[in-house]
Structures are given as structure tokens and as C-alpha cells.
From TrEMBL:
Residues 695-708 have a biased composition (Low complexity). Residues 278-550 form the PPM-type phosphatase domain. CDD domains: PP2Cc. This is Protein phosphatase 2C domain-containing protein.
Length: 810
């Protein structure tokens, strides 16, 4: 339906001319006109044409347009608790909308929250009609007489019945990935409201967060059984029925196991797809810089590459794209970016992509970034670079393998997802403003008021890897799309959003799955146009782009999944994999905690001295404090068992006690069984046996629990039970061994044990009566041993322990 356009003020501070909503650029100065369509929360009773706070124009029920997009928020009051979950979930931009502005009752008459990146889209068939309007008031009047072209994306319920089995399964996989982070913020009920779950092609997007009572995983299984199971496609109907049954009966009792089954099913179904990736990269110095501090892989100007990731291709076939931006204002940024590219490229070649499970690969990518960081830091130290003389670089990296895409980043270089419906940034900048949001201090447009809001809080080469927190997301694209990696020479001032409609959308519409490849010329030309846009419209920095164009086709019938697939060793190790969506696996509570406490070299002008030259005099006060704390800790441990036994009012707690440490152990989005990861044993029913570690992997039949009668005190060479693990213990995964495709063992190291457990379960006495079962001792810190992955996985949760606990475990 054709309708009148509203009016937008030009964001150019020297222009600020009124423009029709139908215009893409200011008619006076040619500045791009960003359009922010917002979803309103609260008791909104505005009719179309109503103007709130002299800028937000109501276009239809709950949908507003910001007519002054250059202005930041004028709200400085303390934020209500209702906003905190939105802020804490800022690391999930692909799925969760973010707070754009908050209008208190004193401004809007009633408290209103405006959400950006809500599941709204612009109906393509309803063209806006420019009007000869000279004021915002006239625009408001005109809008009240017309209907808006901005609509909500369809709900899953509206699309489910006609969606393919792959789409249905992919949507459920994304919902399961969101279960843990939303549960942590007590908003998991958002996933149990059909109209709240919207779909943007492949991707699940939430309309808003729900604050209903916290549901259980059984509630989720019943919800799926009632709403999605009756109209599930035949290829997955049997699988989904059994899955819902297992959840409702409590056999699948955590999100880790649920994700393991969904992951295994996706592996089987995606084998029917062909995935052709076309890649182009380009980097340019820009019109004002003396040298190019950016770098990319493949090398800038390389011929456009095409990679086929079909199921019949080698399993280790992959595609890698990297963009690095040397930190401006630091000497040697070009050296740092080239060092990072060379290191990451070499490490990717050494990865066994055929054997690595998703979580092990995610961990390997994090470690690869840390290795690159160490190489740059070592060169900084060897050249005696301190403070702002240290060279550094951002990094954003995309690795495509089979049906998955892994996105890794540090800094403010970005990745954008582009489809026929819009353009979405899927990474979160590591800057001060974003940190303020993650910590719950302010929403983004409020945080931008700070003078240092754009300063980076982390980058490669600026500090030790123990202080670096890379973000890794795992995504599963299921439609033709483009992933754009770029430096801020392009992304600043919304240039990517500006390019989507004019440059990217025509290419996507021209090359749907039925019409074949885009051709290398089209993608290379797109890269050149994007670089030219950055140079022309920004012009103050280097510009680098990396483009991955996905073209996905179904080349054979989908298999039918009638039952739950057997969980292989691979599936067990990925049982707690994160979403893309997450974005990503590392933008977790651990990152938030670290960002809150760590000093950042790029924000503070003072840099730490290299380890080779410690400042000895500054350690003396700390040594005294450490001795005092150690003495108090030792006294507490010594007295605790006595107090426990002598106090009749104290009973063992049903939940694990917190691990004593200077910093809390926080949940992690990574899977618990990847080598180098940490897990915490959870509380189990009273009649459940404690898991036990043995001296080496056993060849006994899979599924048979470790027998203390047969193995305690076994002869040399036989498997021997070493001891029990108690709830609350923090463990490190130090090795993994697959005895067969279905049998996986892990070697664990005990990092910490709840203090009360040491007095609760004493070691085996010397005078053990003959014929009586020997007592199984509680394993102390430092002990290592083996256990079946299938036995420990359901009883543990991935955690990110504080640095001091990590060091104690080494």
C-alpha cells in the first residue's frame, strides 16, 4: 500500500535539513539518512502521527521512527531493572533486540522503552511517496492519515508448517542455544511464547524479553511437543517426537544434552546440501593515510576464490577469511596486522579440521588468537615498546567448515550478515561503550556520551594472553547470504548499512539458488565499490573488506530421522556448544567479569612493564597481604571440619558450596569436554552415586559404571579407582581419548574441592573390615584421572574460573 513518508532531519550537524523518509540521502548535502524503526515496550497508547520527546514518530501500533537519528539519548536517570537483561544479552545481537532509548514518565507521560534491531522489516512492495512538507509537525499530521510499510517479521508459528525440515531443525537449534544465556538472566520464558519468536529466513529473532516465572527444560519440551511436533516435516517428525518425550521425562535434563542431539541431527540432514562459497578481499590505504596498517587474508587483490563444501568433498575442506586493522596512533600497526595474519594463517593450516569437534575447534581458534597476541607482544617487549608505543591490531576471522561458520574477533573490526531482508552486525565491538552496556551501566546510545566511548578495551599485542578474551561464534547458515568482514574505515558512520540496499541487495536478488553462481567479477566489483565507499564517504582511515558469499542448494533428498541419533564422542564433546550467532562462544559472563576488573592498555595511558623488568619495590606491600590472606585461609580450612562436626544445627547442603576464590566461577558458553576447558560438577539426587576417576581408560562395556569393588586396590597394570568427585568441584579437561566411535574418555585434573567435602568424606581407614565395601576417598586438588565422557557430561556445566584458580590448577 502506498503511503506518505515521514520527515527525517539530516544527521550532518552542519546541515540538519528536513528530508522525506523516502529519500536515502539528504537532498541538501548528500549525507546518508539512517532509518531506525523501533519497537516500543510499556503502556503505549499513541496513535499514528504522535511525536514523543520531539523526535520519535509513531507510525503504527508500537512502531516508531527516530526522526533525529544523529542525536544521542537525553536520558541520564538511573536505569530500571527491566533493562538489565537486555544489556547483559548485548552479545547476542542476531537474536536479542537492544535498548535504543528509554523515555521516563516525566518525558513521555508513561515509561516507554524503545528497542532497536527488533524483528521489523520494510515491506518491499509499498513504496514511500515523497511529500512537499516543510516541518516535522506537518509530517506527523500526514503520517496519521496513512498506514506504515514497516511490519513485524513473521512468527515461527506462521512459517513452521511450510518450512523445510532443515529450517525447522535449525530454528530449534538456535532456540536451544539461547536457553542457557536467557536462563541466566531469568528471561527464558521468552522462548516459550510463540508470537515472541520471529524468523528472519534462517535466523530466530526475539521480539522482546519476557519476565514470566522461570520455566524448566521440561516446560520447553512440552511447548515444542504441543506447538511444533504436530506439523513437523516427516523427515524429522519421529526424531522430534522422541526428543520431546525425553525432555518431558527428564532424561534430557540440561541444555547441553539437548544441543548434542540437535547438533547430531543437523550433521545428518545437512549432508544433503551443497554449499558453494565465493570469497573476495581488498585493502586500500585511503586518501589521507601515509601507509596501510590494515591487512587481510587472502591477500588483497587475490583472484576471487570459490570453495565447494558439499558433503562429497573432503571433510577437511574449509574457507578462511581474516581482516586486521593496525591500531591507529600506535607505531608499527602495519607490522602487527601482518604478524597476526601470518600467525593465524599458519595455525589454521595445522588444525585437523576433519577430526576436531565444534567445541575443540572453537577452543583452537581462541588459542590461535592468543598465540598471535603473544607473538606481537613479544616483539613489542624485544623492541622496548611501552605505553602508546606498543603496536597492536584488531582481528576478525571467519572459518567455514562443512555446514558451520566460525566467527572470531577481538577489537572493533566487524562482521555483518547480509540477506535479502536486511543487514545485521553480528559482532560486538570491544570498546568502552560496549563494555558499559555489558556491565549493565547504560544502554549503548547513552554510553556514547562518554568522551572515551570509542576507545578499545582489548586488541592483539597490548597485554598478555591471560588478559585477552576472544569471541568465537558458531553459525549455521541455511540460505543464500553474504558475510562481510571489514575494518572501521568502512563501518564507521553506518556506511555498511548505506551500501546494503544499493550495492549488496541487487547482487543477492540476482543470484538466488536457482540461478547459479554470482561469478567472480560481481563479487570483486562489490569489494571495490565498498572500498571506494569507505574512501569517499569516510576517507580518514585505511579500508579493508573480506566478503564470503554463501550459495546453498539441496542436491539430494533429506534423510528421515525416526529416532534420536546415537551420541558419538564428537557429539558428547560439543554438548554445551554456544549459538551465533552467536554469534559466538566467548561473549559470555567470563568476558563480562574480566572486562569489569581488568586494566586495559588501550584505555589507560599507562602500560605495564615487561615481565623481564619487574618493579620489585611495588611487590613488598602485596607480599605481606598475600601472607596474611594465606594464613587466614589455612586457619579457615583447619577449623571448618571441626565446626562442621560439632554443630548439630548444620547439615550438608543439597547444592554445591561455592569454590573459595577471590573471583567467582562463572558459567561459560563453551562445551565442558574440550581439552583445556573447565567444568564444575553439579548437585545430583541424594541416591545418585558420585562419579569416580580411574587410573586409565577402561575397556569394559560402554555404559557400565566404574566398579569400586573390582578396582580399588587393583594390581599394577589394571584400572584402579582413584577416588570420588563431589558436587562443586572444579575440574580441568587435560586430555581426550576415543576408544571407538561411540566411546570417548576424558582425563580430568581436580582444581578445587568444596572445603566441607574434605571433612564430610574421609579417606579409607587402615582397619577396614574384611568383606565390607572400601570407602572411596574424595579426590583432592591436583589429582588426575580418567572417566567416560558420557558419565561426566550430564553431571557437569562448563565454567570459566578466575585467573588465580586457573594458575592453581596448572
Amino acid at each position: 500500500m502506498r503511503h506518505a513518508a515521514a520527515m527525517l532531519y539530516c544527521p550532518n550537524s552542519t546541515c540538519q535539513a528536513l528530508n522525506s523518509e523516502a529519500e536515502q540521502f539528504c537532498q541538501n548535502c548528500s549525507t546518508f539518512l539512517p532509518r531506525h524503526y523501533l519497537w516500543a515496550l510499556g503502556e503505549v497508547t499513541c496513535s499514528p502521527g504522535t511525536l514523543l520527546a520531539d523526535r520519535y514518530l509513531c507510525q503504527q501500533s508500537r512502531i516508531f521512527l527516530d526522526t533525529k537519528p544523529a542525536l544521542l539519548s537525553n536520558t541520564y536517570q538511573e536505569l530500571p531493572d527491566l533493562l538489565l537483561p537486555y544489556l547483559q544479552l548485548v552479545s547476542y545481537p542476531l537474536h536479542v533486540p537492544q535498548v535504543y532509548d528509554w523515555l521516563p514518565a516525566s518525558v513521555a507521560g508513561t515509561e516507554i522503552i524503545l528497542l532497536d534491531h527488533a524483528p521489523l522489516y520494510q515491506a518491499r512492495g509499498a513504496a514511500l511517496q515523497p511529500l512537499d512538507i516543510q516541518s516535522l509537525e506537518e509530517a506527523s499530521s500526514a503520517a496519521s492519515e496513512t498506514s506504515s510499510q514497516i511490519e513485524l517479521l513473521p512468527s515461527i508459528a506462521a512459517k513452521w508448517e511450510r518450512a523445510s525440515a532443515l529450517s525447522q531443525l535449525n530454528w530449534l537449534w538456535q532456540i536451544a542455544n539461547l536457553w542457557q544465556p536467557l536462563s541466566r538472566e531469568k528471561v527464558a520464558s521468552s522462548l516459550l511464547e510463540a508470537e515472541n519468536l520471529r524468523v528472519d529466513g534462517t535466523w530466530v529473532r526475539l521480539l522482546e524479553l519476557s519476565f514470566q516465572p522461570q520455566p524448566t527444560l521440561r516446560d520447553l519440551g512440552q511447548f515444542w511437543s504441543l506447538l511444533w511436533l504436530p506439523s513437523a516435516q516427516p523427515e524429522i517428525a519421529g526424531f522430534l517426537a522422541r526428543l520431546c518425550q525425553e525432555i518431558s521425562q527428564g532424561k534430557i535434563h540440561n541444555a547441553e544434552l539437548l544441543l548434542a542431539y540437535l547438533d547430531e541431527a543437523l550433521v545428518q540432514l545437512t549432508q544433503a546440501q551443497s554449499r558453494q562459497l565465493t570469497i573476495a578481499t581488498l585493502s586500500d590505504r585511503g586518501p589521507t593515510r601515509q601507509r596501510n596498517e590494515d591487512a587481510c587474508y587472502p591477500q588483497s587483490g587475490s583472484p576471487t576464490a570459490t570453495v565447494d563444501l558439499a558433503a562429497d568433498r573432503p571433510a577437511d575442506r574449509s574457507a578462511l577469511v581474516i581482516v586486521c586493522d593496525g591500531i591507529g596512533g600506535h607505531q608499527g600497526g602495519d607490522v602487527a596486522s601482518r604478524l597476526a595474519i601470518a600467525s593465524l594463517e599458519q595455525q589454521e593450516k595445522e588444525l585437523d579440521l576433519k577430526q576436531l569437534d565444534p567445541v575443540s575447534l572453537s577452543v583452537a581458534l581462541e588459542k590461535a588468537v592468543c598465540v598471535a597476541n603473544d607473538k606481537i607482544s613479544q616483539q613489542n617487549d624485544s623492541e622496548q615498546r611501552f605505553e602508546r608505543q606498543r603496536m597492536g591490531t584488531t582481528v576478525v576471522m571467519a572459518l567455514a567448515r562443512r555446514h558451520e561458520l566460525y566467527v572470531t574477533h577481538v577489537g572493533d573490526s566487524r562482521v555483518y550478515l547480509m540477506t535479502r531482508r536486511g543487514c545485521q552486525q553480528i559482532t560486538l565491538d570491544d570498546d568502552v561503550a560496549s563494555r558499559e552496556v555489558r556491565l549493565g551501566y547504560s544502554f549503548y546510545r547513552q554510553a556514547l556520551h562518554q568522551p572515551s566511548s570509542g576507545s578499545l578495551v582489548q586488541a592483539l599485542g597490548m597485554s598478555a594472553s591471560s588478559m585477552l578474551y576472544p569471541t568465537v561464534q558458531r553459525l549455521i547458515p541455511n540460505e543464500d547470504c553474504i558475510f562481510l568482514l571489514c575494518s572501521d574505515g568502512l563501518s564507521d558512520n553506518e556506511r555498511v548499512e548505506e551500501a546494503w540496499e544499493t550495492d549488496v541487495l541487487p547482487l543477492l536478488e540476482r543470484t538466488d539458488s536457482a540461478s547459479g553462481s554470482t561469478g567472480s567479477i560481481d563479487l570483486a566489483a562489490l569489494a571495490q565499490r565498498l572500498v571506494d565507499l569507505g574512501n569517499k564517504r569516510n576517507g580518514y582511515d585505511n579500508v579493508t573488506v573480506g566478503i564470503i558469499h554463501y550459495q546453498i542448494t539441496l542436491n539430494q533428498p533429506l534423510p528421515t530421522l525416526a529416532e534420536l541419533p546415537l551420541l558419538s564422542s564428537v557429539s558428547l564433546s560439543v554438548a554445551a556448544a554456544n549459538a551465533a550467532a552467536n554469534a559466538a562462544t566467548s561473549s559470555t559472563a567470563s568476558s563480562i567479569t574480566a572486562s569489569e576488573t581488568q586494566p586495559t592498555a588501550l584505555v589507560s595511558p599507562a602500560m605495564p612493564a615487561p615481565e623481564s623488568k619487574p618493579a620489585g619495590r611495588s611487590l613488598l606491600p602485596w607480599l605481606g597481604l598475600i601472607v596474611l590472606l594465606c594464613g587466614l585461609a589455612g586457619l579457615s580450612v583447619a577449623l571448618l571440619p571441626i565446626l562442621w562436626r560439632n554443630s548439630p544445627s548444620i547439615r550438608p547442603a543439597t547444592a554445591p558450596a561455592p569454590v573459595p576464590s577471590a573471583s567467582p566461577v562463572v558459567p561459560s558458553a563453551g562445551a565442558p569436554l574440550a581439552v583445556g576447558s573447565f567444568i564444575q560438577l553439579q548437585a545430583q539426587p541424594d541416591d545418585a552415586a558420585l562419579p569416580k576417576l580411574i587410573s586409565r581408560p577402561s575397556e569394559s562395556p560402554s555404559g557400565s559404571p566404574t566398579s569400586p569393588v573390582a578396582e580399588l586396590g587393583a594390581e599394577s597394570g589394571a584400572e584402579q579407582v582413584l577416588g570420588s568427585l563431589v558436587p562443586g568441584s572444579v575440574l580441568e579437561v587435560i586430555k581426550q581419548q576415543n576408544l571407538s566411535q561411540q566411546e570417548s574418555w576424558v582425563e580430568l585434573r581436580v582444581c578445587s574441592v568444596p572445603a566441607e567435602a574434605l571433612g564430610q568424606l574421609p579417606n579409607q581407614p587402615l582397619d577396614q573390615p574384611a568383606g565390607q565395601l572400601p570407602a572411596v576417598p574424595v579426590l583432592p586438588s591436583g589429582q588426575t584421572g580418567w572417566i567416560r565422557a558420557a558419565e561426566i557430561l550430564p553431571q557437569s556445566t562448563a565454567v570459566s574460573p578466575p585467573p588465580e584458580l586457573r594458575q592453581a590448577c596448572m
